Amino acid sequence: MASTNLATTGPPISVLFVCLGNICELLELMGYNDSPDQPCSGRSPMGEAVFRHRTSSDPRVRLVESAGTESYNVGNSPDERTMSVLQDKGIVDYSHVARKVRRSDFTRFDYILAMDRSNLRDLQVLRQRVATKGNMDKLARVVLFGDYGDENGEEIIDPWYGEQWGFEVVYEQLVRFSDGFVKKVLDVDREN
């Protein structure tokens, strides 16, 4: 069951990264892109990989995964550009198969981190559907990942329609937000 008690002496936490499709895959060619204002993105698997890499030796983190709010890409691997950036940055041991957010994720994870406001709204609606009387405090905390950056409310850009450099920008954002999460959540008791 999810818990938001983050004392450094408490149990290790679990984190789920969420974007729309959970990979960068050319949906137009597959006939799935019915929502051009919300293209599929590979932000959540890159977020998973970056956060795992940066917290791999941290005993306060027990589980890191990613998922999408839609099922467009279930079973697919990340886009080549995502994997290329990860490999260029020394993250060579990452593999991923896309999946959709499940109801059980809200009790399995302590934090569910949305890549943008649209993802955040979708996740908040899902969380409300999972909620029953008396269990809200036991459900995952749903947060915009950019709230852990330098500016509250910053969204992770969607690199899908751009060039390779957009994936580099996403990587830099994810590093910054991951470090911010560690500082603002995991290290909070060390400062007290």
Unreliable stretches covering 5 or more consecutive residues: 3-8, 22-40
Strand order of the largest sheet: 2-1-3-4
Determine Rg (CA atoms, Å). 16 Å
Instruction: Tell me the overall shape.
Output: globular
Count of DSSP helices? Answer: 7
Spatial separation of the terminal alpha carbons:
27 Å
Indicate the proportion of strand residues.
5-15%
Biggest beta sheet attributes = 4 strands, parallel
Helix content: 25-40%
Helix-strand pattern, N to C?
EHHEHHEHEHH
Mean pLDDT: 80
Structural class: alpha/beta
> How many strands in all?
4
Could you explain how this protein is built, in words?
With 192 residues, the protein is an alpha/beta fold. The protein has helices at residues 27-30, 43-55, 80-88, 105-108, 117-130, 164-186, 188-191; strands at 13-19, 61-68, 111-114, 141-144. It has a four-stranded parallel β-sheet with strand order 2-1-3-4, sandwiched between helices. Strand 3 (111-114), helix 5 (117-130) and strand 4 (141-144) form a beta-alpha-beta unit. It starts with 12 loop residues before the first strand and ends with a helix.
Keywords:
single chain; about 190 residues; alpha/beta; 4-stranded parallel beta sheet; 7 helices; disordered N terminus
Secondary structure topology:
Blueprint lengths: L12 E7 L7 H4 L12 H13 L5 E8 L11 H9 L16 H4 L2 E4 L2 H14 L10 E4 L19 H23 L1 H4 L1
Parallel strand pairs: 1-2, 1-3, 3-4
Task: Provide a brief overview of the structure.
With 192 residues, the protein is an alpha/beta fold. The chain is built from seven helices and four strands.
